């Protein structure tokens, strides 16, 4: 409650009494109303009233709040109240300052219209005035109430929300049964109510054909309060719609479609473009099932790109009228179609189609089954070409082969050059002409079509020799290819027969093979390898009767800066006897890398490195392949700790499975597919022919061919194809040259294959020698071993393997551990062996270990003899011993280095 600012409000001594009154009506909701009564202590009588004293303060209590009166100039008293939150009482008592009743005032209300917007609630409001006096002559008392308001009843709710007067409650939708008679009910006001359902109607506003019945229901709510003058009845209305949506579908060519309702009330669908002659009716299913007849229009029927076929285009519509009895709407479906009908004719025996020429009328093709023989006559000289649809012959035509003015075969040589490679084709041309009737079985359209067949007989001519390469393979199987067009001393040309390739000295110990790039018709021998001057290699091959040679030479080792860690010499006895031989060629203490070239029949050499006093020699890594073995020595100056590594590479020409391998010529497969266009240069497939003779297709450009297989490819009918080949080791590159049916379009397809053979795919050792003695329990599949030696820091390891396979071996030592990596000749397989040595117990046989490991102990001249591992078949051998120099303490003379020491690491056959 708010009051006037002049009133000086304070709480009354006693609160207003609020009486709860309950009223009801039969059949209506009972509502509880609240009404204010006069405040306690007030009286409507006048027995206790006294004549007001104008000097006394007067008060009254309005809605529980005390108000004070203000005297005006005429001696009358008044008070103002802004608003109260309840109905004003019918009487108001005025008290003096001693709480004695002075006067009782009467109420006059000015009511505003009732607010009944919320069902169950009546809001009363308005303004009011109290007036009265104690006696006929006393001053008057007036209390003005600016606004009063009070709500009676409680809000009636549905689904947790107040109900607004005059607003129907929408209960949503329910399914309309198939008999169109819904029976839905609902609960409200502790009653179960039903609906009055309207007529069956149609709704298409949401794009769906929908049948519905509108349902309505209502109930009344009453509120009565006699004291407040309230007697209100509300009517609450409810609505609900029973609906049933109809959806129709159809399936055409295996695809499902759903009809949609357009803005004209027609169920319609547009079908995907057809690829065949359309069906004369479609079946509609869903809310009901029926057939719709079609009306077909063919707008085009022309000869197709392949002889025997017809290109057909058109449209079809399917319609059904609306049926108000069902009721169902009208239906409409439509589609266009385009297809190629009929059977493409082929040349009998070749499956070759005839394609439409540029004039759009004449069809032509090339007969790829005819090959030109050495006498330039077709090897299969048929006098007629027969056209067939696969079941029966439909036309024949004679072939007229071209002849020159002398009546001899008229041939041409066709050249095509791509990326510098030229391919030649010898060709003879013939023609055959005729007409044939073609029919589309769907539309029944028939037409007479002329054809002109260009019969060609080809013979590929390719004796080209376009390149040489040298492939270098190190001990780890890593390869480097040197191209004769840029890496030799002069650019490769078939007219130049000898070349030089110069490589660093570090490449001396690697393996080398010669590769060719040539046409399949060229005649090429097997490349050979021999040692030239020093450690150089001489690679030779004969192509088309001409010998070509590549000299692989190596630069001399560079001279290093002087160092205290140096040998006094490396001595070689080429006879193989265990006696000190000649100082190695090009000796210089500061040249660290040396090469020793052996002939194929030369004996294994005896090698003796020597060091001055105070310098130790320790065996280092060993790197081996079929054609060379490289031994390293770690030379250390004991005073300064400075070390350097010397190496000796021993080479010998050896034939291996890699150098001797030669695959079968590429196998051209008979065509099984026709070209898509006269300019088509794509192959049908490629792959290999296995040793069982079966063709295996491969979908990659780089792949492996199993043992006994050969590269193969399949051109298309109408194409001419040849192959050029080059190789690097076991990896061969085939380039298939394809001339299209039109005789002009040309393309090349390149494939890289690695041939797998048992020896070139092998990566395993046959044994391991530690200080000349085989490790215990060696098995090629066992990868880790242990052995006992005199000194784990100075010992010799010698891997044994079959060098004829072309595999390479790399050995890395680190103190008592060694890791041997074996790489197969084709570079695809690797095997790693590990060896760990420990010091022998006292009392062990130390001769063999001393013979390989003892170095640099108290001698003025220390010699250490290192053997080089033997190549299987006596190519390279080991003779190892240690010459122990005279000690300053024992007075003995040095042992004779002629083999008196046991040759424990010695020779591996």
Describe what you observe in this structure.
This protein has 909 residues and is an all-beta fold. Among the domains are: 10-153, no CATH class; 248-342, no CATH class; 346-461, no CATH class; 465-554; 662-749, no CATH class; 767-839, no CATH class. Helix content is 1%, strand content 49%. The protein is built from two helices and 68 strands. It has a nine-stranded mixed beta sheet, with no helix packed on it. The chain has an eight-stranded mixed beta sheet with strand order 22-21-25-26-27-28-24-23, with no helix packed on it. The longest helix has 7 residues, at 847-853. The protein starts with 9 loop residues before the first strand and ends in a 46-residue tail after the last strand.
- Which regions have little confidence, pLDDT < 50, spanning 5+ residues? 1-48, 843-909
Strand content: over 45%
Described by strand count, sense and barrel closure, the largest sheet is: 9 strands, mixed
How many distinct helices? 2
Q: Compute the CA-based radius of gyration.
A: 58 Å
Helix content: under 10%
Mean pLDDT: 82
Q: How many distinct beta strands? A: 68
**Structural class of the secondary elements?**
mainly beta
Q: What is the CA–CA distance across the termini?
A: 123 Å
* Biggest sheet strand line-up: 1-5-4-8-9-10-11-7-6
Overall, the morphology is flat
Summarize the structure.
1% of the residues lie in helices and 49% in strands.
């Amino acid at each position: 409650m708010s009051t006037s600012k002049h009133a000086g409000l304070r709480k009354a001594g006693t609160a207003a009494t609020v009486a709860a009154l309950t009223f009801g009506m039969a059949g209506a909701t009972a509502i509880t109303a609240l009404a204010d009564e006069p405040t306690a202590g007030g009286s409507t009588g006048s027995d206790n009233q006294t004549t007001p004293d104008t000097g006394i303060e007067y008060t009254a209590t309005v809605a529980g709040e005390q108000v004070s009166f203000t005297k005006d100039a005429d001696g009358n008293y008044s008070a103002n109240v802004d608003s109260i939150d309840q109905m004003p009482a019918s009487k108001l008592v005025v008290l003096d300052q001693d709480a004695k009743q002075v006067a009782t005032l009467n109420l006059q209300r000015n009511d505003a219209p009732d607010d009944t917007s919320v069902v169950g609630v009546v809001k009363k409001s308005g303004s009011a005035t109290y007036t009265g006096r104690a006696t006929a002559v006393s001053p008057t008392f007036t209390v003005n109430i600016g606004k009063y308001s009070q709500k009676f009843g409680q809000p009636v709710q549905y689904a947790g929300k107040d109900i607004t007067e005059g607003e129907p409650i929408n209960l949503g939708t329910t399914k309309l049964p198939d008999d169109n008679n819904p029976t839905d009910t609902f609960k409200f006001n502790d009653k179960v109510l039903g609906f009055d359902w309207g007529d069956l109607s149609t709704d298409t506003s949401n794009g769906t054909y929908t049948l519905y019945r509108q349902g309505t229901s209502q109930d009344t709510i009453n509120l009565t309060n006699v004291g407040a003058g309230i007697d209100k009845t509300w009517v609450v209305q409810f609505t609900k719609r029973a609906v049933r949506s109809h959806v129709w579908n159809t399936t055409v060519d295996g695809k499902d479609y759903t009809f949609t309702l357009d803005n004209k009330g027609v169920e319609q669908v547009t079908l995907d473009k057809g690829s065949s002659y359309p069906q004369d009716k479609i079946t509609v299913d869903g809310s009901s099932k029926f057939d719709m007849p079609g009306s077909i229009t063919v707008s085009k029927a022309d000869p197709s790109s392949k002889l025997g076929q017809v290109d057909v285009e058109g449209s079809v519509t399917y319609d059904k009228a609306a049926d108000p009895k069902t009721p169902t709407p009208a239906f409409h479906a439509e589609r266009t179609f385009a297809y190629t009908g009929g059977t493409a004719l082929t040349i009998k025996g070749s499956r070759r189609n005839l394609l439409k020429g540029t004039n759009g009328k004449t069809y032509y093709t090339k007969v790829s089954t005819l090959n030109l023989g050495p006498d330039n006559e077709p090897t299969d000289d048929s006098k007629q070409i027969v056209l067939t649809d696969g079941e029966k012959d439909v036309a024949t035509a004679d072939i007229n082969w071209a002849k020159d003015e002398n009546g001899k075969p008229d041939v041409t040589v066709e050249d095509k050059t791509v990326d510098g490679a030229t391919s030649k084709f010898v060709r003879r041309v013939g023609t055959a002409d005729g007409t044939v009737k073609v029919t589309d079985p769907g539309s029944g359209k028939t037409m007479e079509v002329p054809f002109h067949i260009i019969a060609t007989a080809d013979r590929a001519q390719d004796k080209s020799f376009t390149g040489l390469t040298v492939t270098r393979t190190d001990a780890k199987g890593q390869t480097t290819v040197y191209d004769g067009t840029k890496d030799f001393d002069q650019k490769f040309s078939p007219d130049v027969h000898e070349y030089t390739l110069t490589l660093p000295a570090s490449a001396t110990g690697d393996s080398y093979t010669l590769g060719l790039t040539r046409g399949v018709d060229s005649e090429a021998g097997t490349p050979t390898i021999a040692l030239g001057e020093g450690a150089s290699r001489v690679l030779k091959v004969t192509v088309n009767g001409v010998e070509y040679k590549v000299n692989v030479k190596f630069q001399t080792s560079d001279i290093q800066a002087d160092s205290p860690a140096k040998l006094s010499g490396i001595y070689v006895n080429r006879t193989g006897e265990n006696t000190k031989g000649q100082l190695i060629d090009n000796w210089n203490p500061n040249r660290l890398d040396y090469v020793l070239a052996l002939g194929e029949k030369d004996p294994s050499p005896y090698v003796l490195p020597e060091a001055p006093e105070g310098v130790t020699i320790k065996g280092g890594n060993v790197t081996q392949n079929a054609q060379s073995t490289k031994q390293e020595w770690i030379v250390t100056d004991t005073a300064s700790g400075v070390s350097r590594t010397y190496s000796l590479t021993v080479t010998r020409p050896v034939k291996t499975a890699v150098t001797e391998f030669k695959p079968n010529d590429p196998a051209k497969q008979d065509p099984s597919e026709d070209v898509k266009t006269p300019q088509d240069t794509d192959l049908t497939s490629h792959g290999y022919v296995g040793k069982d003779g079966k063709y295996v297709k491969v979908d990659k450009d780089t792949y492996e061919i199993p043992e006994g297989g050969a590269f193969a490819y399949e051109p298309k009918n109408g194409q001419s194809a040849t192959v050029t080949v080059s190789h690097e080791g076991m990896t061969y590159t085939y380039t298939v040259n394809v001339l299209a049916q039109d005789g002009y379009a040309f393309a090349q397809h390149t494939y890289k294959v690695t041939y797998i053979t048992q020896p070139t795919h092998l990566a395993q050792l046959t044994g391991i020698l530690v200080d000349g003695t085989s490790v215990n329990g060696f098995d090629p599949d066992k990868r880790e071993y242990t052995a006992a030696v005199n000194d784990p820091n100075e010992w010799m390891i010698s891997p044994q393997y079959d060098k004829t396979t072309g595999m390479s071996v790399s050995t890395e030592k680190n103190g008592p551990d060694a890791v041997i990596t074996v790489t197969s000749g084709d570079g695809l397989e690797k095997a790693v062996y590990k060896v760990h040595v420990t010091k022998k117990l006292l009392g062990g046989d130390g001769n063999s270990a001393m013979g390989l490991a003892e170095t640099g102990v108290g001698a003025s001249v220390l010699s250490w003899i290192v053997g080089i591992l033997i190549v299987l078949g006596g190519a390279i051998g080991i003779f190892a011993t240690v010459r122990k120099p005279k000690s300053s303490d024992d007075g003995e003379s040095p042992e004779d280095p002629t083999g008196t020491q046991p040759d424990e690491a010695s020779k591996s056959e």
